[in-house]
Design a protein that fits this description.
Shape: globular
Helix content: 10-25%
CATH architecture of one domain: 3-Layer(aba) Sandwich
Structural class: alpha/beta
Strand content: 15-25%
Radius of gyration: 17 Å
Strand order of the largest sheet: 1-2-4-3-5-7-6
Number of helices: 4
Order of helices and strands: HEEEHEHEHEE
Distance between the termini: 15 Å
CATH superfamily of one domain: Alpha/Beta hydrolase fold, catalytic domain
Largest sheet: 7 strands, mixed
Number of strands: 7
């Protein structure tokens, strides 16, 4: 088990908007219309995950230099969103700067991926996310996973934690898609007794 506590961000206990954005409607319009740029976020690596029969989902991934040594955050967008949403890129930029791998996941049919799935997207598809997390743990040997859902995906993001099976202690993962496995690194999923959930400003995170 790898100690990733040094990368964790303190829990936010309050939020004070700038004076010009005290009105909730003004804040919403500003967030929609104000362009955002993230020059410190490296170009993503596009990755496909097989989550069901004849069904794939796509993620834009930002990997640290040695991803198997770093914690990973899997981001779930809101209704009518995609991995390209400004908040998905913004959260990724902040997480990447703190040493996280960032995985911006497109839900089924989202982000121009209708051709990759037979079924339609809905908020009950927690199994899709669970399969992605399972692969990151068991195949990529990533040491710690956080799932953060925005808006519509706040609660489903938290529920995903209960669907992920625990890997065997010391079990080896295969090399796949350019993310190498380091032998004896000890892959683990955080146990339910260590589960923490928080919700702030429309975002829910299950660790």
């Amino acid at each position: 088990m790898r100690d990733c506590s040094a990368c964790m961000i303190d829990v936010m206990t309050g939020f004070v908007p700038r004076a010009s954005l005290q009105n909730g409607h003004a804040m919403t319009l500003y967030g929609w219309g104000n362009p955002r740029y993230f020059p410190q976020l490296p170009p993503p690596v596009r990755r496909y995950f097989d989550v069901a029969r004849a069904t794939r989902v796509v993620a834009d991934c930002h990997w640290q230099a040695k991803p198997w040594t770093r914690p990973t955050i899997v981001l779930l967008h809101g209704l009518n969103g995609s991995s390209q949403a400004h908040y998905m890129r913004g959260i990724s930029a902040k997480a990447f700067a703190r040493g996280f791998n960032a995985v911006r996941l497109n839900q089924r049919n989202c982000g121009d991926t209708e051709h990759l799935a037979e079924g339609l997207f809905h908020s009950g598809l927690t199994a899709d996310v669970a399969q992605v997390v399972h692969e990151l743990i068991h195949v990529d040997a990533l040491p710690a996973i956080a799932v953060a859902g925005y808006s519509l995906w706040r609660q489903p993001g938290a529920e995903t934690r209960g669907r992920v099976r625990q890997p065997r202690a010391g079990g080896a993962a295969r090399r796949r898609r350019g993310i190498p496995h380091r032998r004896n690194r000890g892959v683990h999923a955080i146990r339910s007794s260590e589960k923490r959930t928080s919700s702030t400003n429309g975002i829910s995170c299950a660790i």
